[in-house]
């Protein structure tokens, strides 16, 4: 469905958007707060594993619930795959001028997330570190095969993805039941929100420069959206656990991720769209109506399951 831009047209858009990138780098740097991953790790809880004469991990050492374990594993492995994300974005955005400056800054900020999360989980023995390492190797060895194509699809995708990750991280932190874990995930979620704002602003500008192509890209991304961790081991099982716990589900995806960004872009308020863009918007609206119905159905069924579970306990 996507309209692949002619390479010459895409290069032209990269040039036209560069001043917007530069301005948003300045804005980002003025509000971003540097932080240190080691500050969010309770090092006093740490001890050696068997390789150094200590004790290897055992399930009873973890204070995390099964839900919290699933959420933290999925979120950490998502952050681990940063080299693949860097490659994809570098290919789409290029490596020149302001685009290169942003890519490097974004990568440096994102890299802190996996460092802090892994240190926290290892020191607190929240999850099996051997299993976690095996999962990381499998995921990163596979990399990313398919995903958004070209400049505009990638801009649309990261706008939604950064916000989706923010929601997932924030709720996973609460699920840990640990004040330090909650604080760590809130700090990471704050980074993701700033990244979302950066990309969201670029899409806003691209809608003015290339409304037809940008609207088609937004439609295609929303219709095919997958979280970046979708390729990791046991993702379907873990994502079901996460959804059933309300950490990230279809209702949140619709209400807290897709719709706020679309409203910011005034997607359904614009009156100046060319015919192909208008058609893309209509297809997007129809799809979102279906998502809304499915989300409501899921929430209702989850509530019914929870009610039955409570009755069986009483």
From TrEMBL:
This is Putative acyl-[acyl-carrier protein] desaturase. Fe cation 2 binds at residues 110, 162, 192, 195. The keyword Iron applies. Signal peptide: none annotated. GO terms for molecular function: metal ion binding; stearoyl-[ACP] desaturase activity. InterPro entries: Fatty_acid_desaturase-2 (IPR005067), Ferritin-like_SF (IPR009078), RNR-like (IPR012348). Homodimer. Gene3D superfamilies: Ribonucleotide Reductase, subunit A (1.10.620.20). Belongs to the fatty acid desaturase type 2 family. Binds 2 iron ions per subunit. One of its GO terms (cellular component) is cytosol. Keywords: Fatty acid biosynthesis, Fatty acid metabolism, Iron, Lipid biosynthesis, Lipid metabolism, Metal-binding, Oxidoreductase. It comes from Actinocatenispora sera. GO terms for biological process: fatty acid biosynthetic process. Fe cation 1 binds at residues 79, 110, 113, 192. Its cofactor is Fe(2+); Fe cation.
